[in-house]
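TASK: fixed-backbone design
INPUT:
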């Protein structure tokens, strides 16, 4: 999954994502791709998520983590039965 997303900042403890100062983001030229490894159980629920490749900006990586944790997933199938699996969630951030 690849998502283009305007730059935002995350509150690490609560997981809430709020808009970041867009002017500062443009001035900084903040951009990058964050890859998040997500473990999903047989019901499609996230059991863990971690940054596997960061953007170099921890604020962007926290936003990507929050997005990956909040996404909806379908479990993988093995012999037509749902099973746990790992996915890579990709978020592309760009300064516009």
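OUTPUT:
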């Amino acid at each position: 999954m690849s998502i283009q997303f305007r730059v935002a900042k995350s509150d690490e403890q609560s997981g809430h994502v709020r808009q970041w100062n867009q002017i500062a983001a443009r001035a900084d030229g903040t951009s990058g791709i964050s890859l998040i490894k997500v473990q999903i159980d047989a019901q499609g629920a996230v059991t863990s998520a971690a940054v596997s490749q960061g953007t170099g900006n921890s604020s962007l990586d926290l936003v990507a983590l929050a997005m990956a944790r909040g996404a909806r997933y379908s479990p993988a199938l093995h012999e037509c039965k749902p099973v746990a699996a790992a996915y890579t969630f990709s978020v592309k951030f760009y300064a516009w």
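COMMENT: The chain has one domain: 2-93.
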